[in-house]
Design goal:
Blueprint (H helix, E strand, L loop, with lengths): L1 E6 L19 H14 L2 E4 L7 H12 L5 E4 L8 H10 L3 E8 L11 E3 L8 H12 L1
Helix pairs in contact: 1-4
């Protein structure tokens, strides 16, 4: 049994103030994400559109590894479906003790209680980290 962080990139690790850099260049967001991982032992599952195609995945993989992290899987891609459905499908096939969704979008249906909705203008903040840790420890 494990804790899982469903990770979006744009609006979480990459924000408007970073000009949504293709290199995901702002370190503070990774430092904050690492704090969640260290405090909870949760594993990262990539739910971002960055999971589509190898170049985006490779960039995320490289940046996460620079901070001693990586993702263990990606959610399925359902054309025309929103992210909440993709996460629900992933959860139905894995044993998960607790989970949190880090995303700047709110399309999570029945999973909304697990959502830490970030501000796309500034990305992952300390208050988001605290909320995510709390949700993963429930």
């Amino acid at each position: 049994m494990m804790g899982v962080i469903f990770l979006d990139i744009d609006g979480v690790l990459n924000s408007k103030q970073d000009r949504f850099s293709w290199d995901i260049e702002t370190d503070i967001h990774f430092i904050r994400l690492k704090r969640i991982v260290e405090k909870t032992g949760a594993q990262i599952v990539l739910s971002s559109s960055w999971r589509i195609g190898n170049s985006g995945r490779d960039i995320v993989h490289k940046r996460l590894q620079q901070f001693g992290m990586d993702f263990i899987d990606v959610t399925p891609i359902f054309s025309g479906q929103h992210r909440g459905r993709e996460i629900t499908d992933w959860l139905s096939r894995h044993e998960v003790e607790s989970f949190v969704i880090l995303d700047d979008e709110g399309d999570m249906d029945e999973l909304v209680d697990h959502l830490v909705k970030t501000d796309m203008n500034v990305g992952l903040q300390d208050s988001d980290v605290d909320k995510a840790i709390s949700l993963l420890r429930q």
